[in-house]
Amino acid sequence: MKKVLIMSVGIGRGIESALYKSMKEHNPNYVVFITTKESEATLERMVNGKRIKDMVENTCLTIEDEKDIESSYKSIKNLVEDLLEKGYSPSEIYVDFTTGTKVMSAALASVALMYNLSSLTYVYGQRDENGRVISGTEKIMSLEPLRIILDIKEKKDIPAYFDVYQFNACLETLKELKAHERIFSHKELERINELENLIIGFQEWDRFNHKQAKEILSKVKKFKLEKQIGFLDELIEERKSLSKKFPELKGKIPTHHLIVDLFSNAERRAEEGNYDDAVARLYRVIEMICQFVLLNEFKIDSSNVDIDKLKDRLSKDQIEEYQRKMDEEGKVKLGLKEDLDLIIKLDPKNQISQLCSEVEDDLKECLSFRNNSILAHGFDPVHKDEYEKFQQLVIKFIDKIIPNYKEMLEKSRFIKINQ
Known about the structure:
Elements: E1 4-8, H1 15-26, E2 30-35, E3 46-47, E4 50-51, E5 58-62, H2 69-85, E6 93-96, H3 102-114, E7 119-124, E8 139-143, H4 145-162, H5 167-178, H6 186-206, H7 210-217, H8 226-245, H9 256-271, H10 275-298, H11 316-323, H12 336-346, H13 351-358, H14 360-371, H15 384-401, H16 405-412
Helix pairs in contact: 2-3, 4-5, 5-6, 6-7, 7-8, 8-16, 9-10, 9-15, 9-16, 10-12, 10-15, 12-13, 14-15
């Protein structure tokens, strides 16, 4: 296998022994010495009867101003890019920063990290009274830049993705971490697995898979999720309770918690800047509120309206109007506007009916945002101000049927890792 060793070169006494030790350990095919004008003479020194610069095929990169870190960084960066262009892979390039100036070493280590080179090596040993390493006591310590890169991914990249709900990006990054399990300790791997459960749990929740989300998040111990798990538990129990009350609906039940959860989901889409998606969800929130009212107050399923339940409340002409809506399967299915219209007809004094009268113009305008959206019937993008107006309108609807919605909403919000 090809192997290149990049070494920073200093001027102190005994440095040649450290250089020799590193070259012997790495056994490279090719060495690039990074020197200053003063340290070039170090390569003329003898170790075991042979000059350093004659021990292996090599070249020198001379740093003109060893105090200029930006210039040093650029020179070393260009060197590494040149090696990569010549066909060396990052795994074939090793770095030793034992000697040389602090600026050279810092620049060299930075480039090694950026390009994920094979390893960073440092030679150490017993020191004499002057603080110099005693020849013959040298030992090599190394660190893989990959380890630092993976730590950055875990500590910075994943939290950054998670906090903006980019769960697939989180999982792809985790996949990179788990591909290098050998680098991590058992305790670190436990932490990574815990992080994976956190991500998958919230991803399932974001997809409305509430049971799976609760099951997975319940395994997470190192993050405070009491509020979120409590909300999921209440959501599941409320659906279960109403399913027993309306068994014919087979669990397809609008509930308080589902309404709040959907509203919270809309907030997340807006936070991402996806206002079309957010407004589509807000539309569904109002629709779900109407379905909830029709079901709980009038025992009417808006996806399959029982005409007989309307006969004592509506006129003959109105009944015939709904009969004409019957599809080929014999079902009367109502959309949002028809739901609102039916609630008003059944009980003009109902709180939703009264709210519709109060916000009639705003309701028409907000519904037009959704209807004109490319995700509905039109071609227009939804803008932030349109979403915000729709959001405030939806809050008025939620407030009418869920007095404690603010408390529920707070419990439904996803945690932020970076906060």
